[in-house]
Amino acid sequence: MTQGSTTTPVRFGIVGRGWRSAFFWRLARALPEQLRLVGVVARSDEAARSVEEKWQVKGCTSIPDLLALEPEFVISAVPWGVNPGIVVALASAGVRVLTETPPAPDLDGLRDLWKRVGETGLVQVAEQYHLYPGHAARGVLLATGLLGRPSSVQMSSTHMYHAVSLIRGFLGVGLEDATVRAGVFHGPLVDPQTKNDGWTGDDTEKDAATTLATIEFASGAMGLYDFTDNQWHNPLRSRRMLIRASRGEISNDAVVRLADSRTVLEAPIVRRQTGWDLNLEGFELDHLSYEGRVLYRNPFPGLSLSDEDIATAMLLVRMARWSRGEGPAPYPLAEGCQDHAISLAMQASARDGGRPVAVSEEDWANAAASHQAAS
After folding, report:
1. Among 24, 75, 87, 239, which is 20 to 30 Å from 291 by CA?
2. Which of 130, 170, 122 has the alpha carbon at shortest distance from 150?
3. Residue from 16, 42, 28 nearest 100 by CA
4. Rg for the chain (alpha carbons), in Å?
5. What pLDDT does 272 receive?
6. CATH code of the domain in which 52 resides
7. Is the pLDDT of residue 4 over 80?
8. pLDDT tens, 85-124?
9. Chain mean position to CA 119
10. Pairing mode, if any, of strands 254-260 and 248-251?
């Protein structure tokens, strides 16, 4: 494998054949030296045949049929309501699992799933946003200590558990207890592009909801969540983020910091994108840098991948390394449970007029704390 010491492709399977499964199939095709998709479980013989025709991989109608193909890990990419049962079935068979987000639809489901498979250590969560090149570069810059200790993150980019993952990651708060307060506000907004329909040309104003929430962590760090309906796809709503630390801050790609007691420096995180104008290197990300230092370099040069594809491909490669004992766990189940528990607390607080909702003393956080203390 290009990203590790493994020399043969890692074999993996998928349960589900929806739009997200197609991402994994397409990236496996782009990385044949590292990843080999051996089979996909569909709900019927007809659907399995469709998988074989379109994707040129084995179509299966049951998990035992898929496991007979000896995958080294399996991705569960099915609707929220049925996902926990699939994850339990795979983990009970001793299989390493990468579950799509969220791992269960509600808090009771998260708790039950953890009780059934949490301590097996076999389950990872397909949370890829922290692997986006821009987010990864911001994380590297924070890790240098140039900006001091992060204290707050304002995130208006993606939704719910994904945004919580970014907030927790930039703050470095781990599985700390948190208190959430949230509200929902409405206003008119044109929404000309959607995930399912693409560009619709509809320029009528419609009611759109914006959710605002504060997340106060036990350590004193704070997150501010701001998301408007369909913000991912609506070109009339931009992405915004602000990471504040003790010696400076990152506002989107603009960085300000205190270099010494009398010197404030301002500089951007710079993206080198090839393929513009007369550049003939191919259209893709080359690297991201700050003050002449490369923070992030495209790990898949020559493939012309989008940032989403780079992040998802990196998640698959890390899952492959971990499956063979060649790297750390990419995103453990406990992390995904905590992300969604906080996002569910936001929904609960908003429904109840902004009352504070606590996320504390969950089994996955207690287990992580116990393991950390033991080590």
Report:
1. 239
2. 170
3. 16
4. 21
5. 97
6. 3.40.50.720
7. no
8. 999 999 999 999 999 999 999 999 999 999 999 999 999 9
9. 22
10. antiparallel
Q: Are 47 and 21 in contact (CB under 8 A)?
A: no
Q: 298-323, pLDDT tens digit by residue?
A: 999 999 999 999 999 999 999 999 99
Query: CA–CA separation, 207 vs 185, rounded Å?
Result: 10
DSSP 298-312: -SSTTS---HHHHHH
Domain-located, residue 106: yes
- What is the domain count for the chain? 2
Determine, yes or no, domain membership for 235: yes
196 vs 323 pLDDT, higher one: 323
Q: Are 100 and 316 in contact (CB under 8 A)?
A: no
The domain that holds 145 is classified in CATH as 3.30.360
How many whole angstroms separate alpha carbon 28 and alpha carbon 323?
Answer: 16
**Going along the chain, which residue ranges are E strands?**
10-15, 35-41, 58-60, 73-76, 96-99, 123-125, 150-156, 178-190, 193-194, 198-199, 205-217, 222-228, 240-245, 248-251, 254-260, 263-274, 284-290, 293-297, 357-359
Residue 110 lies in a domain: yes
